[in-house]
Structures are given as structure tokens and as C-alpha cells.
């Protein structure tokens, strides 16, 4: 009797061990993350180790793209400012290139780049042409909504050339960060977004920093020896301030349009580019028509000019990549690096910038404000909304 009972216990114990083994094997086969689940749904026969390796590769790729996009943004932002400043101060024998012409050329290149990206996304299908025509022509109301931000962006791009023709690269870089303030204010008023305490504090730091950067030094003799007069300094400042206001409004307006529709970002950029080309071309004819008739649209173009056009056209695409792969902290870090690099190159290479203690203090406040505004604080509740 005892023997049969011990045998039954032994059998029960073996069954339990087998059940645990089976359960363990099933748990090993379960996906450990959404990426693993997606991979296993494609091929359920893949072993668990292979799924984990695939997940690791995905994470490494995403991590690499984040910092690659950061580096590209720093390079693009710094290169655009410095080359644009250099191109507007370079002494040439012939006529200088027209800023309005460069804006039009950049819009054409932007349209071409976005069209290529759409073809790539759709495996170079010919049907993409019909889809683009339908999006642009069959929806005139949706297309016309982009006329407002396109016109403002065109004005902004022209203002940036005016600003960098009258301001050194370092001062321009720091002052142009006021677009954070204008974007925040327009986001609150137009989109109903809320800012947390630290974000409002960062905006105060930003205004204080820009004020210190623009504070007069009082060294009139030294100032008169520089290539930038007080009048051109004022013109450059007004151009930057107007560009900041236009950038904030156009950016928030464009964000609102994107949230109301489901169209591709590249399609929207093509529509923006078309309106930008029309407005830019009309502005070129109105303000520089005589120069265009006398020397042509591409007068004064050289390698530096073509570089400026390419950098300006691809700037929006680089920002789109950064938004996709990076976060606000890294974007703030990229802005800070760009300010520092622009300051160093403007001082050592371009030789058009004389730093002061007030400038460095103001620049540090602006950099701190950029980090503070973009840092994702996580207090109790949802009192902070990213802008």
C-alpha cells in the first residue's frame, strides 16, 4: 500500500516537473518587447536568442541614429550661419549675389528633395505623380491654407540674409534663439498649450541673456574700428527680431495644419515650397528686378553661394530627421554646441567678432535657458506640455 502511494507521488512529481519545463520553454519563446513581438509575428519559427539579438540591433541602430542626427543638426546649423555670413561679407570684383535669388533657388531645391523622398518611400512608383497632383490640385482649400506660412517663411528667409549682412555670426546665433520665446507664446495663444514653471523661468533667462548680448559696451573708439556700424547693428537686430516673430507664428501655424490633416510631411513641404517659390520669385522681381534684368538671376553665384543654398534648402529636412530620432534635450544640446562653435569660428577665422564679458554671460544664460526649456520635467500631474 505504501509502495503504491510513493509511486503515485513520484509520478505526480515527474508530471509537475515536465509541466514546469514546458511552461519555461513557452515563456522563453514569449517576446520580451514590442520589437520582438513584431519580429516573431513575421517569422514565428525564429528562436528566442535570435529575437533578442534583433531587438538589440534595433536599439543600437536607433541610438546611433539619434546621435548621428544630432551631429548633422549641429553641422548644418553652424555651417549655414557661418557660410551665409561669409558669403555676405566676402569681397568680390563683380556684383554680389542676390539674397532673394538664393531664397528662390533654395525653395526649388527643397521641392526637388521632398519629391525624391516621396518616391523613395513609395519604391519609385510612377503612381506617386498622380497622388501628388491630386493632393495639390484636387484639394485647393487644404493647399491654400499653406499660403500663409509659406509667405511668412519666405519673408523670414530673406530677413536672415539681412541679419547676417549686418551682424556677426555669434551675435546672430544667440539673438535668434528668441524664436523659442515667440514659438512658446504663439503655442499658448493658438494651440492652447500650457507651460510649466521651469519653462517660463527659462524664457526669462532667455530674454535676459539676449539683452546682455546686445548691451552696448561703451568703447566707441574700438567700435568705430569694426566693420559693423551702429546703424547696421540696429538693422540686423530688427531683422533678427522680425525673423523670430515670423518663425514662431509660421511654425505654430504649420503645426496646427499638420495636426488637422493626415497628409505626409513631405507633401506638405512640397506645397510650402511651391508657395514659397511663387512669393520669393515675386519678391525678387519687385525688389531686385532691375539687377536681374541687367546681370541675370544667378549673378555673383560661386561655390560658397551654392553651399548656402543647399544648406538652407536641406535645413528643414534635417530638423525633421532630428524630431524623428532625437529628443528635446539633444536639440537643446545641438543649439548650444552650434552657438559655441559659431562664436569660436567667428572670432578666430572670420575675425569679425570681439567678445566681451557681457556677451559670454548672456550666451551662457541663453544656453542654460535652451536646456531648461527643453528638459522634460516629470512632476506629479501633467502640468507641463512640450511646445
Automatic annotation (TrEMBL):
Swiss-Prot/TrEMBL keywords: Membrane, Sugar transport, Transmembrane, Transmembrane helix, Transport
Residues annotated as transmembrane: 67-86, 98-120, 195-215, 235-254, 266-287, 303-323, 330-350, 356-375
Domain of life: Eukaryota
Molecular function terms, GO-annotated: pyrimidine nucleotide-sugar transmembrane transporter activity
Membrane topology: Multi-pass membrane protein
One cellular component (GO) term of this entry: Golgi membrane
One Pfam short name: Nuc_sug_transp
Cellular localisation: Golgi apparatus membrane
Coarse class of the protein's main subcellular location: Golgi
Family note: Belongs to the nucleotide-sugar transporter family. SLC35A subfamily.
Name of the featured protein: Solute carrier family 35 member A3b
Species assigned in the record: Anabas testudineus (Climbing perch)
